[in-house]
Amino acid sequence: MVSEWAERWLSSQTGVKPSTLYRYGNLLRTHVLPTWGRYRLVDVMHADVAVWVAELLGQGSAPATVRQAHRVFSLLLSLAVRDGRIPRNPAERVPLPRVTRNEPRFLTHDEVERLADVAGEDGDIIRLLAYTGLRFGEMAALRVRRVDFLRRRLTIAEAVTEVGGRLEFGIPNTHQQRTVPLPATLAESLARRCEGKQSDDLLVTTASGTVLRLRNWRRAVFHPAVRTAGLSDVTPHDIRHTAASLAVASDATVKSVQRMLGHASAAMTLDVYSGLFDDDLTALADRMDAAARAAADARVGAVWTRPPAETPAKGERSGQRGGPRGDRTHNPRIKSPLLCQLS
Description:
Elements: H1 2-11, H2 18-36, H3 46-58, H4 63-82, H5 109-118, H6 123-132, H7 136-140, E1 147-148, E2 153-156, E3 159-163, E4 166-170, E5 178-181, H8 184-194, H9 214-228, H10 236-249, H11 254-261, H12 266-273, H13 278-304, H14 337-342
Antiparallel strand pairs: 1-2, 2-5, 3-4
């Protein structure tokens, strides 16, 4: 039965983060098993999976959710193929809805400062997110020992997420730690947060010293600050988008932005923020055009300053001096080497 196999598949997912495992379980319970739970694995047909995908979409599920539910179903069926339970995966090559990416919301420096000013004691949190590009979970898991004030660097080696009401500490999204530059303007406020703490203590906490939870902080601090600052349609994740925008405006390269944000590849950075680099490409074209013009001007100048050729002496033809003439000869009685070869 699919339900029994799904349980076995889920228990075998040891290489994923707790938040991912929790999401897999939710997708199975809410979207996959209600339809497929009582099916035998061999009874799952490709056409039926395509109909199921269309029905999920017709019932109002978001395209991204439909794709995620299909992926979970396909993953457990792939395991059944590898285990020899079924000959092929009937969920492969099923038409899926296209997901349209929402346009990122970018704040200006002035809007960031306005938002931070009205956030009160949490203003430095907004500045930290806006000028470093940290994910909220990475910022909430940042420990005192990972702040290097001398080199002005943050080491991002941990993240915290809320999974089913519980806080789970783990590695960042890309499964790799990274180093992020710390602007000097943030050093003083972060130093105050380090006062009286041990090296392994969390840098940013609630007033009572507990871990910051995104849902609580968003409701108690962020949304009121957005309204007071006169902004609209701004989410905490938009502050991360803003960090990318401000970095590009400061002439950061694609690779630099990728490393700062912790993206898996530069291609991923371009997928999300390609529009930010349009001005950079225009500036690149302008610089290349200027270099080409300078090279052309230098070439014209070299032609005009070239010394004139020497006037041949009386009785000499032009080009007759200065070494052997090669295969050519002006004496009709002497054949050239080429003519000798042909004769």
